[in-house]
Amino acid sequence: MDWAHFLPPMITALLASFVECIEALTVVLAVGAVLGWPGAFLGAGLAVAALVTLLLVAGPALTLVPSAAIHLGVGVLLVVFGLRWLRKAVLRAAGVIPLRDEDASYKRQTLRLRGLVSGLGTHNQAALAAAFQVTMVEGIEVIFIVLAIGAANRALLFPAAIGAGVALLLVAGLGLALHRPIARIPENALKFAVGVLTCAFGIFWIGEGVGAAWPGGDWLILALAATILATALIAVRLLARRAVRDAA
């Protein structure tokens, strides 16, 4: 596999995983600060182990499903998933809805957990359960993206898994070093990029599923991504202008 085919799935999985890992880290840090670090770290670690096991089991199982059915089903899911991310990113970039603030989210989670402390049993058990739950919830989306990319073309499963693994190591390393939310990362820009790339992959695999002969083969994914990006940027400008008119 050359770099032109290796990099797009790896970057897509890396960016998507990075965003999800940041959101999970924010809650895990709040859990650790209020309920204790041992339980928070153990819960997050167990969830990561469960997610890796799921990926190792589900990946080979994809070989049992006909390729055409996988292409079509995965393509539709990727487009739906990507449009959800892209819609929020466009609205935030246009100023229609506020940007996500990891510091504010951390404070909200901390206050919520402190309000629940009196009704909890052993803090370590509560920390383990809370950290496990949030890591699993955010991680399932990462596993979905990795499997979706690999399902449509099994040769892409490895670079997608590499991208997700790199994102996990980066966020975990930053979390251990800083012990605070990663608030300076341009999260909306990352979600924008993930939405564009995921939609591009989805449209491509839908075409493959219905038997379309794409000109240029896999290279068309980059052209689709460029077209979606241009359309989304136009939408940002139009929505921003409307927001200014409505505010005037």
What does this structure look like?
By secondary structure, the chain is an all-alpha fold. The chain has one domain (3-247). Helices cover 82% and strands 0% of the residues. Helix 2 (37-61) packs parallel to helix 5 and helix 5 packs antiparallel against helix 6 (157-178). The chain is flat and about 55 Å long.
Count every helix, treating DSSP H or I runs of 4 or more residues as helices.
Answer: 8
Largest sheet: none
Query: Which class of secondary structure composition applies to the elements?
Result: mainly alpha
Radius of gyration: 20 Å
Overall pLDDT metric: 79
Compute the separation of the termini in Å: 54 Å
